[in-house]
Amino acid sequence: MLPPSLLAASEDLVRIPYGAGSSSSEVATVDDVIAGAALLRREACARAAALRSGSASADESEQEAEESEDEQQQWLSLRVRRPAAAEVAGSIGGKLWDASLLMSAWLLENPSLLQPAGCRTPRVLEIGAGLGLVGLAVARALPDARITMSDYDPAVLRNLGESIRLNFAGAAPAAPAAALVDFRDFCEVDVAALPHLPPASPLCRYEGLLGSFDVVIGSDIVYDHSHARIAALLRAMLRPAANGSADSHPCALFVLPDGRPRQADFVASLGAAGLRCRIERVGRDCLMCRRIERVG
Prior knowledge:
Elements lengths: L3 H4 L2 E9 L6 E4 L1 H24 L6 H13 L1 E9 L15 H12 L13 E4 L6 H9 L4 E6 L2 H15 L8 E4 L7 H6 L21 E5 L10 H8 L13 E5 L7 H10 L6 E4 L4 H9 L1
Parallel strand pairs: 4-5, 4-7, 5-6, 7-8
Antiparallel strand pairs: 1-3, 2-9
Helix pairs in contact: 4-5, 4-10
């Protein structure tokens, strides 16, 4: 039998620290990502060994740095409904993942990334939204943006609706929408046929969403071979570039942990779909990154 803490849903207050210009990034390759994952594993093993031996202790300078950060940074507070385990059985959409915290802080610090060519009212699609932290943060940071938060699991979508209600009930800005989007419905054959889809195509159920987004976002969404289909999803969901201008190109932004499998396959699938990919590794000077590392 599940413990009581897992049988009941809860409403959590999530506070996201951020500060303008507090994080950096550097251009990287897939090989850099693989090497970074190996380094993180070695560091995690070293920390675990230190804890077992009793040699690990609190670093006073780290504590002082955190207190200094608290004085300088800004905070965004959101209420997130965490579903009971029974509500989302078989789904990972009921957990708050580190990548969603990091991406939320990164976008709060760099909201212009969500505004191609300075668009004041971008349409933004979050895929694999889970608890929806990133989409909620974007909606608060860009009140004029039109946000659609999506997942493939109807139970996760119902929970998303509750989190949207907790944060936007009866108040401006406009609340995000929730929509069912399943990566597995998208394949290059159907996408190539757009806008003339055969009646049996699974993409027909996305009428009104296809070709309408300026930006697609997602955190920690690549770890399975089926996620190569995200490339086809991007081609289907992003709007066409306006007037051939590079500045007006729609784009996708993802935060993907180094240690997840299938990332090399994912990058290759983007190139095969005719999409350009730029990889950047978030620097450890990022406020949220440092906090995640200190926690564990």
